[in-house]
Amino acid sequence: MLDPLTAYAGSDSGGDAALRWVECVEVGADLSRVPQRIVDHFLTDMGVERLAASSYADVRALHRAEASGVVMHRSEWTAVRRRIEAAVETTLPHSHERAALNACATACWPLQTSSSILSTLIAAWLQEVNREADPAFGELKTKRAMATLDEIYQQTQPMRDKGEAVDIPALFRMRDPILAAGFEASLERANARYLDRAQSVPGIVLAHLATA
Known about the structure:
mainly alpha
């Protein structure tokens, strides 16, 4: 986790995050249960207890069994993960339920041997910050903006095929300046929300490390 943690902290704070990692963990501390705590933290924050209670319970049971020293075959994890993935297909695309189930599937791996689970789960948690429509711009305006951009993209395809430079945002501003300005402001707000959440990751992870 150290590399992604310092990356989330940013270039100005990455070094500080690495030093805090060293300072907050006592020499000889048993960190074996920390990954499970981190997984539970982000799954809970994504609402899986409410949106995917059964799948979350199955994943937690596997992690707890692993932590207690029970030797489990990979097929046990695979069976649970496939059940969750099948449940995903019964939900609506882009729904909160689908996101929660996908998060459970992401976490359904042995924590002691699958080193990418935490970083993958955190990436999914970061994407969740902008799942809700921007209230200052609205879903209908967002759909209009995306439709306009798609239309411009399709219309300029021949030019781009010839290698010509096409400034799609500029064309969008010319076609509908008010809509384009609102859309760009909404993107800035979305980027700011994502950045704020990303920069909170080191503190969350370090807090769990410090309690080991």
